[in-house]
Amino acid sequence: MIEMQNVWKIYRMDSVEVIALNDINMKIEKGEYISIIGPSGSGKSTLMNIIGCLDRPSEGEYLFNNKNVSDYSDRDLARIRNRRIGFVFQMFNLLPRYDAIKNVSVPLLYAGVEGAKMEAMSRNALVRVGLGDRLYHKPSQLSGGQQQRIAIARAIVNNPDIILADEPTGNLDTKSGKEIISIFKTLNEQMSVTVVLVTHDPSVARQANRTIEILDGSIVTKSSFEKERGL
Ligand SMILES: Nc1ncnc2c1ncn2[C@@H]1O[C@H](COP(=O)(O)OP(=O)(O)OP(=O)(O)O)[C@@H](O)[C@H]1O
Ligand SMILES: [Mg+2]
After folding, report:
1. Is residue 11 in contact with ligand 1, taking CB distance under 6 Å?
2. Mean pLDDT by 10-residue block, N- to C-terminus, for the chain (231 residues)?
3. Is 51 in the pocket of ligand 1 (CB under 6 A)?
4. What is the 113 CA–ligand 2 centroid distance (Å)?
5. What is the pLDDT of residue 221?
6. Rg of the chain (C-alpha set)
7. Contact by Cβ (8 Å): 149, 180
8. Residue 27's beta-bridge partner residues?
9. Which ligand is nearest to the CA of 20?
10. Which of 52, 115, 132, 217 lies at a C-alpha separation of 20 to 30 Å from 102?
């Protein structure tokens, strides 16, 4: 469902050029659970932004559901982001004045779903992440792990094809982080949502079915010797 062919991302600032992605080739099939690891500044978020259609490659082809993203207008891309992709971020990015159910409803409002249907879909998403008893709490009245679960409910409320999570456990303690990871695993296994998760934490990365390692904007290819030994 995702394919990159010779993708480069180059940031130019005055005379300085940063090569954030250096000739990336990869494929992600529907239903996969992938982790992306690599040191700070290696290009993980840049790659996620392109996968999520938040940004476009400087060079190369990106195909989302077999269609070349360069053929889409910015408006088309906004629609794809809203309907097909669920985003989860390290800082949760919730609206502080809205309760849980209203936060989860935001993507539905953009999609034109309103009223009782919106309410029911948002409630259902919150139940799926185990927050059925916190529908009317505001973010400040919830723990970090619970806030991240609202963010996951918001990401899945539109039944996306893919969930993109950039360091979703980065602001959580170990126990809450584990709970969040097990939610992604359940969503992947039970609803066959494709999951792509960026993490610094090797124990989180190991939960995925496949790990993509990035170094200096390139994907690290491992020998079969290293793969067999989990190196
Ligand atoms: N908007 C931008 N303008 C210019 N340079 C950028 C921009 N975004 C990222 N970069 C540069 O691109 C490189 C890759 O950044 P990126 O944010 O993708 O790294 P990362 O792997 O997500 O790091 P971290 O683990 O710290 O989040 C870095 O050198 C960064 O400085
Ligand atoms: Mg990053």
Report:
1. yes
2. 96 93 96 95 96 96 94 94 94 96 96 95 97 97 97 96 96 94 94 93 91 95 67 61
3. no
4. 32
5. 81
6. 18
7. yes
8. 3
9. 1
10. 52
